[in-house]
Amino acid sequence: MKKLFPLVFFLLTDSCLVFAQGPRVTLTWTQSTSTGLTGNNVYRGTVSGGPYTLLTATPLPASTTYLDTTVVSSTTYYYVVTALAGTVESGYSNQATAAVPAHPNSPTGVGALAQ
């Protein structure tokens, strides 16, 4: 059995929040340097320290980014990533946090003048 080293997890970026398409969070990380790496799993929770729920239906092959489009406004999420070598999964990476802002307020005072 090969030993997988923990991933180094970079700070999450939330500069890609687009309300027209719904809120989203972009995760980035540094890949494990373990040999035999076959992919990564991404997990998310709403409580710091877990529990976490698997977000990736199938492992991400050699990817170092993930776009979470299932987030809800005004919610804080906690993410971890694991590395896979076949069926062997590493422990969780360090945790990253994303606070999804509320939707912007709707415009008010809109009027129309028929001519």
Folded structure, characterized:
With 115 residues, the protein is mainly β. The chain has one domain: Sandwich (Immunoglobulin-like). It has no helices and 7 strands. The strands form 2 sheets. Strands 2, 3, 5, 6 and 7 form a 5-stranded antiparallel beta sheet that branches. A two-stranded antiparallel sheet has the order 1-4. Strand 2 and strand 3 form a beta hairpin. The protein is elongated and about 70 Å long. The chain starts with 24 loop residues before the first strand and ends in a 15-residue tail after the last strand.
Secondary structure topology:
Elements: E1 25-28, E2 39-45, E3 53-54, E4 65-68, E5 75-85, E6 88-89, E7 96-100
Antiparallel strand pairs: 1-4, 2-3, 2-5, 5-6, 5-7
Features:
30% strand; single chain; Immunoglobulin-like; 115 residues; disordered N terminus; 0% helix; mainly beta
Query: What best-fitting shape do the alpha-carbon axes yield?
Result: elongated
Main sheet?
A: 5 strands, antiparallel
Q: Provide the succession of SSEs.
A: EEEEEEE
The tally of domains stands at 1
Brief overview, please?
The chain has 115 residues and is an all-beta fold. It is 0% helix and 30% strand.
